[in-house]
Amino acid sequence: MSSYEIESLLTEARRFPPPAEIAEGSIAHPDLYRQSREDRLGFWADRARECVTWAKPFTQTLDWSGAPVARWFADGELNVAANCLDRHVDAGLGDRIAIRWEGEPGDVRTITYAELTAEVKRAANALAALGVGQGDRVAIYLPLIPEAVVAMLAVARLGAVHSVVFGGFSAQSLHDRILDAGAKVVITADGGYRKGKVFALKPAVDEALGLLGSASTVEHVLVVRRGENDIAWDADRDLWWHDALRAAPAEHAAEAFEAENPLFILYTSGTTGKPKGILHTSGGYLVQSAFTHRNVFDLHPESDVYWCTADIGWVTGHTYVVYGPLANAATVFLYEGTPDTPHPGRWWELIERHGVTILYTAPTAIRSFMKLGRQIPQGFDLTSLRILGSVGEPINPEAWVWYRDVIGGERAPIVDTWWQTETGTIMISAMPGLTTLKPGSAQLPVPGVRIDILTEEGVRVDPPNGGLLAVTEPWPSMLRGIWGDPERYLETYWSKFSRPDEGKWVYFAGDGAHVDEDGDIWLLGRVDDVMNVSGHRLSTTEIESTLVANPMVAEAAVVGASDETTGQAVVAYVIVKQSRREEHTDAEFSELLRAHVAKEIGAIARPRQVYIVTELPKTRSGKIMRRLLRDVAEGRPIGDTTTLADPAVMKLIEEMSGSPATTSITAGLPKRRR
Ligand code: PRX
């Protein structure tokens, strides 16, 4: 049965109580909710002592006097890497597998906690020898190989700050991020495997540093050998990772740093053109990472094999591939490649081969597997799976039910987890051993997190009702700011609902949500100009700026249109400069501009369609009406055009975009969403 035959499940009314075996051994306990309701700060202080080993214990849980910049456990000291490594070895868990990794070509590596600790110590010594110390920024641009985890932990061990840049981002994007963070060292690889080929990473680093020229703060580039491909070499600047580690001493004593020592910067798209560097610090982040990972995934670290399919370039990879699981001494499975290489059953083969028990992935992946049909996963033994997770975008009920039935053997509970780069860790989720599940709903705030659904005016809505999602109290893993831009931090997250004169700070998440009569939360998507494509955040304005920067383009408007597989897809409407019109056909312009965006930002931002038009719908004040363009992109009747300066424009655009300029995998499928 394909996904499109199960329309009747659109309003799935079934409820799924916890399976007896999960309920009986549940890690999460109802007392967590009770304690967090009665004494939120006491609750977090207990979790902080339970989940983290402090070199110096904290005496104050939260200092909110500098709101909206929080200080959690501020007089406590810890080393984040030692919490993920040494303490487990000291506790006798050195032989437990920390990482089991499979490369796309099928090469396998198994790394115990003792081995990972030893490797991170050497890497920390190697970085220290290059002058990296507390507070220095290190950019990491790597494929999903164990060295990526080693690199992050080595940076953390030194009290330095990592800025991981997804390997799919372009040289230009890498350049912007290195410049903004002022990175001292870049860690990259010669290449990595993707779709059966080696993709080179080092040339993008060379290009990014070339663009920086004398503005570059980068002193060294460490290069991991993975692809065995030819790369250019600058002997004054470049070093092989394996040489540097071999030359480094084996012992490294982990120094303790203050809980608020910065841990990482991670760039994400906002409503304006420039990506923002979200800053996270150490203690509170690690506490909530470990706590949520343990409880939301019902982690039994002695027996589970946990696989989160995210790349380390995204926040999900930071929190739920690296810090949460390793702080909990879990066995993490990692896979380098794409789900369809060399065959479409690759993920299911990996689950069978490595005995994966917990799978955490995005609805986009589930929907593309649904399209291929259930016979593919059914060809593998998936009975090891006991918990399934979903993240990144709303999961539609039919994908939820398919995930549970086909992948989860009609028994594994699914936790739909809502959170953001900014929140650092999971904020809304069911608990597999406690919650009766509702397909399509993320359900309840995790214990210790306070969430409300508000009207535009900031009034809490009466359930059942819809509104804007807001976090009403600070939480340990919250962002501490936007790197180098305190104004933007205040403006983006805290200006909408806060009343600073009354000491009331409310975090605006940018998502719409519905709360039902039971108090369960249903996410409805972004309410701003941020798109969500395959669970990845993209900014409409950033893509518009990129298009307009092309010398062929006069004007551009970008919208996120519903897409059966990727949730949303990028659709662009472009006016070509009069002087350049004769150079290409519309179809050629369209292809060239799709390629331009992919080159400038990265393949994830490549528009599904670029329509070449002669006008854009504007109000009399000159504002582009994206709502109308979205109607066209989604094949809907065009809404109210009375505020347009020239209502005839929409008719023209509709005609011009009547047949898609470029084909896409969704062409011909019904344009429906949830
Ligand atoms: O719109 C929400 C959506 O993803 C946004 C955050 O994107 P990012 O910072 O890239 O982090 C993604 C992974 C945590 C949110 O504002 N989102 C994330 N998870 C869900 C979701 N929307 C609905 N349901 C979810 N479970």
Q: Ends: how far apart?
A: 18 Å
Profile the largest sheet. Answer: 8 strands, mixed
Number of DSSP strand runs: 30
Calculate the mean pLDDT score and round it: 93
Task: Give the C-alpha Rg.
Answer: 25 Å
Quaternary organization:
single chain
Blueprint (SSEs and pairs):
Blueprint: H1 20-24, H2 30-38, H3 40-51, E1 62-63, E2 71-72, E3 77-78, H4 80-84, H5 86-93, E4 97-102, E5 108-112, H6 113-129, E6 137-141, H7 146-157, E7 161-164, H8 171-181, E8 185-189, E9 191-194, E10 197-200, H9 202-212, E11 220-224, E12 238-240, H10 241-247, E13 257-258, E14 262-268, E15 276-281, H11 283-296, E16 305-308, H12 315-327, E17 331-335, H13 346-354, E18 358-361, H14 363-372, H15 375-378, E19 387-391, H16 397-407, E20 414-417, E21 451-454, E22 465-471, E23 481-482, H17 486-494, E24 507-515, E25 521-526, E26 530-533, E27 536-539, H18 540-548, E28 553-563, E29 567-576, H19 586-600, E30 609-612, H20 626-633, H21 648-656
Parallel strand pairs: 4-17, 6-7, 6-8, 7-14, 8-11, 11-12, 16-17, 16-18, 18-19, 19-20, 29-30
Antiparallel strand pairs: 1-2, 3-13, 4-5, 9-10, 14-15, 15-23, 21-22, 22-24, 24-25, 26-27, 28-29
Bound molecules: adenosine-5'-monophosphate-propyl ester.
